[in-house]
Amino acid sequence: MAKSRVTMQPTRAREMSTQSVQMLNPDAWREGLTTAQRGYGGKWQRARLGFLFKNPICETCKAKGVVTEATVVDHVIPHRGDQKLFWDTSNWSAKCKPCHSEKTALEEGGIGAARKG
Ligand SMILES: [Zn+2]
């Protein structure tokens, strides 16, 4: 019975552009997915560590003249589940945790106090 729940043929999936899905619900790709299914699996962990090894300083802090250790790889353009954007290293940016949280909060509609000021 494993195949009974297939809802989309590969050809149908191609017809349906990612963009139209995003317009309906920007967060739809996230719902009900595990971390690994979203693309944050072991491959990502390894790629992330390699990137941070080469880019150890937070780019946001560096722009302000502050040197802070980067611990997070941020996607400059939010990938929203788009694998091409997700793995495009030119779209990656090294960030420290506070800078990343601030950016994410702003992108997601200002959760918490990050929007104040
Ligand atoms: Zn920072």
Q: Key features?
A:
single chain; about 120 residues; mainly alpha; two-stranded antiparallel ribbon; disordered C terminus; binds zinc ion
Summarize this, please?
The protein has six helices and two strands.
Please outline the helices and strands.
Blueprint: H1 10-15, H2 18-24, H3 42-54, H4 59-63, E1 72-75, H5 83-87, E2 92-95, H6 97-107
Antiparallel strand pairs: 1-2
The site of zinc ion has 8 residues, from α4 and α6.
Mean pLDDT across all residues, rounded? Answer: 77
Poorly predicted parts = 12-22, 113-117
Q: Measure the end-to-end span.
A: 55 Å
Report strand %. Answer: 5-15%
Main sheet properties: 2 strands, antiparallel
- Helical percent range? 40-55%
Net shape = globular
Q: Nearest-angstrom radius of gyration?
A: 17 Å
Label the structural class. mainly alpha
Order of helices and strands: HHHHEHEH
Strand order of the largest sheet: 1-2
Number of helices: 6
Bound molecules: zinc ion
Number of strands: 2
